[in-house]
User: Which sequence fits this backbone?
């Protein structure tokens, strides 16, 4: 059905199309069994201490203000991440701020953490408790003077509603955010996160979302701090503000974060590096260019315990997860693997 409507959807401004998708999902009418597949049990995983039906998650950025996560669970996702959520409501950057690069099956966005703010969103989740494993992605407001305090505020306010929380230090669209990849800045942030966890008795898993543009020499420093502060996992990766040379679309030089197929090899390579350095002891969620079972399998073989997509759903539609699950099951049978977890890191 998506293939029929796709030309109309792609004739709309990308943000208008996204808002239309959110409004449609609010009706929550699609039956869950429409997106289930046979023998899905071989896709079961354990992630961050929880058993999940499959390793395919929806990345933060789609359901920014936590409005439709229960409808998204019905589409077959093993887990869903909402946000990025900031302490105060934020409109984001001026429009237009999302661009489709159709020739490259990619997006460029410079949204700037537009969301309803953690006060409204915490009340919303309290009224509509999640029916699955829900990640909450948090970040600072654009104009805040002390970014660390914004993370601590969101952590305190939202932890009780989350299955896990993601510390987003990697969006290229908030000035100064990626400075947290610096060892001293990251140490200060994570030290504060652990203090808040102790003060508030927060026991939810914490993961960090990293930039795909980090240098090799930064990896060891990041791993050292993740180990020191007992962070539960990492997400590799966010969008890139580089990697444009091989693109074909006329809009390739728009300012913002690039996602989709051009990110695929970059993020997979980074997953391998982190997997090797941590010897597989750190849980990794792989993101970037995932739109098929084969692309997901590639990330898992590189060392990811689970994967997330967003741009893949934009181009392939809401049935993409069902198709991915079918393809993954077929790949596992072909490779004589009894469960998807047996593939983690086999090509790292």
Assistant:
């Amino acid at each position: 059905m998506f293939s029929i409507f796709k030309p109309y959807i792609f004739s709309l401004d990308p943000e208008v199309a996204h808002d239309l998708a959110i409004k449609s999902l609010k009706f929550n009418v699609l039956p869950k069994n429409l997106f289930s597949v046979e023998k899905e049990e071989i896709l079961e995983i354990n992630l961050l201490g929880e058993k999940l039906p499959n390793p395919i998650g929806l990345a933060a950025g789609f359901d920014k203000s936590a409005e439709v996560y229960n409808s998204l669970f019905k589409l077959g996702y093993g887990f869903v991440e909402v946000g990025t959520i900031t302490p105060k409501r934020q409109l984001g950057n001026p429009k237009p701020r999302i661009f489709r690069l159709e020739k490259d099956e990619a997006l460029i966005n410079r949204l700037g953490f537009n969301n309803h703010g953690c006060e409204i969103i915490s009340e919303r989740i309290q009224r509509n408790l999640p029916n699955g494993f829900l990640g909450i992605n948090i970040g600072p407001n654009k104009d805040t003077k002390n970014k660390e305090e914004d993370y601590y505020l969101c952590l305190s306010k939202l932890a009780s509603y989350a299955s896990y929380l993601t510390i987003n230090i990697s969006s290229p669209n908030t000035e100064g955010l990626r400075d947290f990849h610096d060892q001293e800045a990251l140490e200060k942030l994570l030290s504060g996160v652990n203090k808040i966890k102790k003060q508030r008795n927060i026991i939810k898993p914490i993961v960090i979302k990293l930039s795909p543009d980090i240098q090799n020499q930064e990896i060891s420093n990041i791993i050292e701090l993740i180990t020191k502060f007992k962070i539960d996992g990492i997400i590799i990766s966010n969008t890139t503000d580089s990697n444009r040379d091989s693109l074909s679309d006329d809009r390739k030089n728009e300012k913002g974060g690039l996602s989709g197929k051009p990110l695929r090899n970059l993020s997979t390579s980074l997953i391998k590096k982190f997997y090797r350095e941590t010897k597989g002891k750190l849980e990794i969620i792989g993101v970037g260019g995932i739109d098929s079972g084969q692309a997901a399998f590639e990330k898992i073989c590189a060392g990811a315990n689970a994967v997330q997509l967003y741009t893949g759903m934009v181009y392939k539609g809401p049935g993409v997860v069902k198709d991915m699950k079918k393809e993954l099951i077929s790949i596992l049978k072909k490779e004589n693997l009894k469960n998807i977890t047996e593939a983690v890191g086999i090509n790292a």
Notes: The chain has one domain: 2-343.
